[in-house]
From TrEMBL:
It is found in: Membrane. Keywords: Heme, Iron, Membrane, Metal-binding, Transmembrane, Transmembrane helix. The chain crosses the membrane at residues 25-48, 111-131. Gene3D superfamilies: Fumarate reductase/succinate dehydrogenase, transmembrane subunit. It holds the Pfam family Sdh_cyt. Its main location: membrane. The keyword Transmembrane applies. This is Succinate dehydrogenase / fumarate reductase membrane anchor subunit.
């Protein structure tokens, strides 16, 4: 078989479609977009918690209870938790892929990473939504 120029078609088989994916492209894009969101979320969080009227000295149970009574701050903290975990986790995935020398080391480090991500995201999300300010009863 030849093409319009009279050249033979390449004999090397094409990679099967099922193995082609844009995962790394989306992961690269996600790091940039989540990074921009984290600048606002994390710097805002640091400013409110550490600098604004009284900084850390005013943080206690009542302060946290007051904040989480508002869906806005619940969503802020939820977005920060999810984005920092997925951004940080995806970043560490890259570091592990780059530095682990043996397949088994790479595999188990990534399992450890993914398990820790799921645990921290689940526990944090659970706390944000089930937090009860009435600890007396
Ligand atoms: C201020 C907000 C942040 C911005 C603008 C930001 C931006 C970025 C970008 C663009 C990358 C990709 C670098 C590359 O592909 O070469 C990256 C990687 C990474 N980020 Fe962030 N990030 C931020 C916050 C965070 C936070 C809060 C964490 C931890 C929870 C984190 C952990 C990581 C890790 C572990 C990597 C991988 C580093 C590497 O590939 O060597 N980042 N960050």
């Amino acid at each position: 078989m030849t093409n319009a120029l009279g050249l033979a078609k390449p004999r090397a088989p094409r990679r099967p479609a099922a193995r082609r994916s844009n995962f790394e492209l989306y992961s690269w894009l996600f790091m940039r977009i989540s990074g921009m969101a984290l600048v606002v979320l994390v710097l805002g969080h640091l400013f409110i918690m550490n600098i604004l009227d009284g900084g850390v000295h005013r943080i206690n149970f009542g302060f946290v209870a007051g904040r989480w009574a508002s869906p806005f701050w619940q969503m802020w903290d939820l977005a920060m938790l999810w984005l920092a975990q997925i951004h940080g986790g995806n970043g560490l995935r890259t570091v592990i892929n780059d530095y682990a020398r043996k397949d088994a080391t790479r595999f188990w480090l990534k399992i450890l990473l993914y398990v820790s991500m799921v645990l921290i995201i689940s526990l944090g999300t659970f706390v944000i939504f089930t937090f009860d300010p009435n600890i007396t009863d």
